Structures are given as structure tokens and as C-alpha cells.
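Just scan this pair:

***
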Amino acid sequence: MRPEPFSEPVSEPIPLFGNSGCDQGAPDRKTPAAPECPHQEIIDAYHELVPTGRQVRTWGTERQRKLRARWREDAARQSIEWWRGFFAYIGRSDFLTGRAQSGQRAPFEIDLEWIVTPTNFAKIVEGKYENRSTQQPARARQEAEG
């Protein structure tokens, strides 16, 4: 498993989407409550580090729910430093910042809601939008790992 390119390597897999419900019937485990999600600090970091992204003008209940879920899924994400590193990583992607051209198509325009939507978030974390010049082909990556 490849570690997230903007964080410290991890020794065990991190669930990206929280509890999948696979442990139904298991005894309740008490986990410490996650710190409150600092929405405005994260929004400010997004504006600073992804200046080509659409500006957040409203941050309603549904958007708050998505960001809060990404915040709670992993203890490492429960710090503004992690989010700043994540947005800096996004800022290096030609595709995610609209610097990549694809024929007659308009450049991609990212926004914070798109980023924190579960499927998009997972793709970013997995490196799908890294610049091609920095990506290793899958076969070369497999050979390097093992």
C-alpha cells in the first residue's frame, strides 16, 4: 500500500470511509470523541493553498456534514496541519488546479465540496490526480514494491 503523499507513512491501513457496518453485532467499543471540526480554519486553508479553486461563499448543513465526516474518519486528519498539507498536495496537481488542458474541454474547476465528497476524496488521497510526470506507471510501481 502506498502511503498518502502528503502525510507521514502509516504502518497499517486507514479506513477512508469510517465504519462500514461489517462489525455489526460486535461489542460496542468506546472511542474518544474527535475534536470539533474547525470548518472556518479548513476553508481558510483551502482558499490560501488552492487559490485557483472556487471560493466558498456558503457552507450549509450538507457541506458541513461531508467535511466533518472526512475529519472524523482518521485521527491524523483531525489537525489543521494535515489539511494544509492536503491542500498543498492538491495545489501541485495540474488537473485539480485547472492548469491541465484536454483538447477543447474547459479546464477542471475544483471546489471544496467536490474535494470532501467521499469518492473524490478517496481518489485524491490515492494519487489519481498526480501529475503524470511524477507518477510511476503501475507496472514499474509494482516492480519497485516487490
Remarks:
- Residues 39-51+59-135 form one domain.
- The two ends are 11 Å apart (CA to CA).
- The chain has six helices and no strands.
